[in-house]
């Protein structure tokens, strides 16, 4: 199959059923199928060459969904751009990918236009213009498969830049085959119920958007929200009788503060989460307000979604007293091979801690324009995740530590080296810096910068953060700044970040107040 044929199958089977709810608008599978074909034709107009990268940027909008399927249908590659990035960061990704076109609202495109190199040939297409071009494409009957520029499932479909251990974002190439394999694995590991209505409040510029594909593959609709706001989320669940969504710690705070909101979420029967295990105390808080089935997924961009799952049964056992289960990431999905290996890629016995490696059809094709990183990550068919983990006697995977030095805050990945380089670049009063994640009840982790001043310099934490605002996305800005005389180092002069994390955990007062 090719990616767009997922929608065509639902269109042919149930053309009048809802595929998408957005604000007051409902889009049927018949309408979505037509829009996908129009988007494919429009893509060829703004990016004439097959294989070109076409970027989308901006908040959630139905145009993202038609581009999910339509851009790859045209034989082009959809480049995901996170609208929360600063203009220089966006310009760097557009330039590195040599994107032929960028589609988005004017408030995103104008700052990007100023940040792009003068020699850039990327065409900037305002969202209204994109919609107009799509509207002008003649209607096309459902099920048309002739004349498709791409007929190879191994062809690239999506390109997502992800923060890795080096600090420089790498572009993961996801193919038609890898994405559909990720959908197939998830539909077994986390089934979509026959009456499911998925509520999706997260940015579509993340690989988490593959959850939309999972629902469409099952012929079920998704309620798309522009962003997460508790009141809007609760209203959407009540209006569209949402049955499933992703767990948000901030939602619990709102439910605690407004008991009248709880009955409005009575249609919810399941909640999922990922990125990292949820603290048991948080899961118990949730159960005080919502009687929902819980499941967790372990995956990453390079895996086209999730590859291991911890289902409702394990969660029930965990909440009933087997609390260690709540710390597990889950079991590999069908068709997924997963091992824990040593530095020589030799599998370790049960209980041994090593790097998690994964093999399966859902693994990415490689990193865009980066053969060195690709060779280091894809070894003999295995994806080296960079995560440390172990398996227990039940076959459950536990993630011991996340990718080295990557901070996960509010679901966003922040490469510590990227923040460090920005601080050293913008703040001459800083002699050396180490950026680490510190636990946060609401966001999972905060970005914390530990800085040592240059000789005779004085560091003002608030001024330091202000210097960074034009260089980094808001979620990458340090929320806490600690000034020290020296950073801890080993014999070779390498900063010992784990020692810093331990010290900060044992001395939370050292970080002082939160900023930003």
Top keywords for this entry?
516 residues, alpha/beta, Rossmann fold, GMP Synthetase, Chain A, domain 3, nine-stranded mixed β-sheet, seven-stranded mixed β-sheet, 16 helices, 32% helix, globular
Low-confidence stretches: none
What does the overall shape look like? globular
CATH level-1 class of one domain: Alpha Beta
Structural class: alpha/beta
CATH-assigned fold name of one domain: Rossmann fold
Q: Helix tally? A: 16
Quick one: biggest sheet?
9 strands, mixed
Distance separating the two termini: 46 Å
Please state how the strands of the largest beta sheet are arranged side by side. 2-1-10-9-11-12-13-14-15
* Subunit organisation of the chains: single chain
Cα-atom Rg, whole angstroms? Answer: 23 Å
DSSP strand tally? 26
What is the helix fraction of residues, given as a range?
A: 25-40%
Q: What's the architecture of one domain in CATH terms?
A: 3-Layer(aba) Sandwich
Mean pLDDT: 90
Q: Strand-residue fraction?
A: 25-35%
